[in-house]
C-alpha cells in the first residue's frame, strides 16, 4: 500500500515563519517599475537571490533542520544535491551545530563542491548524475542513521518555502497573481498553500523550463520528454514530488513552459534594469510574464526571483547572446574588391554611422569568391537594432553588398 500523503497547512507555514525568524533573510519585495512598463502589468519582485546562500532553499532547509529531535540532530543529516539545496543544508546545519553530509555527483563543478565543504559539510561524490547520488545518499542514510533532508518532497521543507507567500501578501495584500518557478515543486506547493489560505481568489501560476515539464506532465497527464541542457538547471527535475504534485493539483491554477531564449533574455533584463543577478531558474517567472504578455496585462503580479547562483562564465555568455538578439552586436559579411584602401573605406562608413568594429577578417581563399574580390567579415557594436539597420543601409548605399551572418542566439 502507498503511504498517505502528508498535509501541509497554513498553520504549519505560520509555525515555520516563527521558527525562521532571525534565522533567514526577510528579503525585499519591491515593485519593478521599468519592467512593469515593458510588460504592461505591475510587477513586484521577491528577491530570494539575496538570501545568504543566494537561494530560497535556505528557508526549507532551515525549517526542516529546526524540526529535528535532539537525537536526530546528534546523529546528523544527509542531503543529495549539486546546487542550491546543498548550500542551504550545509550552511544552516553548521549554524545549528548539526553534522551534515552532502552527496553530489562526481560531475559537480569543483567550485560548488568547495563551497559546500566551506560551510562545514562532509561531501561525498558518487555517480555521474544526481539520480546516482540520490541512490548513494539513501544507502548512506540507512547505514549511518542519518535523517534525509529532501530538496522538495517533505512537509517541513514545503512549509519553510511557504513563508515567502506570507511575506509577499503582508507587503502587497492586493496581488492578483503569484508566478513561481517549479523544479520538484516544493516552492510552489508552499506558496500555493499559504497564498490560497490567505486569499482564495489569488491565481498561482507555475513556470517550468520547456525542456523539463515534469509538473506539467504530472498535472495534465501528458508525457512530454524531460531532458537536455538548460540554463535553468535549478528546475531541471525529471519527476515531480509526490507530496508537491498533490498540492499543486489542488491549488495551482496553471503551468507555463518557457524556452531557453526567454530564460536568457529574462536574466539579461534583471541584470540590466534591476541590477540584480538571477540564475536561469531564478529568472523563470519573469521569463514567463515577458513571453505571455496578454496573460498578465494590467494585473498586479508577484514574481519569485528564486536564486542567483549562476556561473560567471555562463552569465557572460548570456550577456553576449542577448546583445546579439538586440542587434547591439552583429556579424556582417561585406563583398569588397581586393584592392588597397577598401577596408579603410568600409571602416570609415561604419565609423561615420556611429558603429564600432570589434573584429575583422578577410576571406580570400574560398573558390566561391571571385579572384579579384574578397569577403570581409566584421563583428560590430551598435546602439540597437535600428542603428544596425542604418549602418547596413549606409554601407550598401556606397555599393558594397552586406549579408547578416547567422548566429546561434535566437
Nutshell version of this structure?
It is built from 17 helices and 14 strands.
Model description:
- The chain is an alpha/beta fold and 410 residues long.
- The protein is built from 17 helices and 14 strands.
- It folds into three domains: 214 residues, Rossmann fold (3-Layer(aba) Sandwich); 69 residues, 3-Layer(aba) Sandwich (Rossmann fold), CATH 3.40.50.1100; 78 residues, Alpha-Beta Plaits.
- The strands form three sheets. A six-stranded mixed β-sheet has the order 1-2-10-7-8-9, sandwiched between helices. The protein has a four-stranded parallel β-sheet with strand order 5-4-3-6.
- α5 links the parallel β3 and β4.
- α9 runs parallel beside α11.
- The two termini are 49 Å apart.
Give descriptors for this structure.
Alpha-Beta Plaits, four-stranded parallel β-sheet, Rossmann fold, 17 helices, 410 residues, 3 domains
Secondary structure elements and pairings:
Elements: H1 10-20, E1 29-31, H2 33-39, E2 42-47, H3 57-66, H4 70-75, E3 77-80, H5 84-96, E4 100-104, H6 110-118, E5 122-125, H7 130-144, E6 147-148, H8 155-171, E7 177-181, H9 186-198, E8 203-209, H10 214-220, H11 242-251, E9 254-258, H12 260-273, H13 284-291, H14 293-296, E10 300-305, H15 312-325, E11 329-337, H16 342-352, E12 356-363, E13 373-381, H17 385-397, E14 402-404
Parallel strand pairs: 2-10, 3-4, 3-6, 4-5, 7-8, 7-10, 8-9
Antiparallel strand pairs: 1-2, 11-13, 11-14, 12-13
Helix pairs in contact: 1-8, 3-5, 3-8, 5-6, 8-9, 9-11, 12-13, 12-15
